[in-house]
Prior knowledge:
The chain has helices spanning 14-25, 64-73, 95-104, 136-153, 157-169, 171-179, 183-188, and strands spanning 3-8, 30-33, 50-58, 61-62, 79-86, 107-115. Residues 194-198 have low confidence and may be disordered. By secondary structure, it is α/β, with parallel strands linked by helices.
Amino acid sequence: MRTIILYASRHHGNTKKLVDAIVEAHPEIDTLDVKSLGKNEYPDLHEYHLIGVATGIYYSEIDKDMARVLTNVLQPQDKVFGLMTYGGKNKWYGKDIDGICRMRQAIFMGVYGCPGFDTWGPFKLTGGVQKGHPTAEEIKGAVDFFDKIEDEYGDTPAQRAELDWLLYNKPLEYAQLVLGGEMGHYLSLGCDHGRLED
């Protein structure tokens, strides 16, 4: 399945470490540094089945250039997942990506986040926070997260079509299958929409 990860990784390259590990495990994935784009330059993502959004968190928000690009390129029904690193406490920083997805009618599939070494703003005065992060275990966690997203999305066009149908027509049942770890079993039954009928 065609996947691209858009990334914005400033300062210490924490977020890029997550992206690089995923690409090392899945070399077929394309990447794009949104910082390399001009102010009014936007990539065409129509050929991608999955769109990754990888960004550091700056004052509790995603990178401003990333937000601008997402607002201009996401299309209805695009499947989006997030990767992020942060210096502060673990909060649900995926809210920005989720909000943009809702506005653009894209589907936010989930987010993986972990601490990252941070010397931004006032943290610089103390020599930084989250030194040594992301750790090798946290980086592996990003790869495992992507593998799970990819597995849940399906491996064949027929499976992807079935998951699309399920997600749009039976979102509660889709969530139950994901949370219950039964997506693989459901897909092994074949593409029969009637399986979830009451």
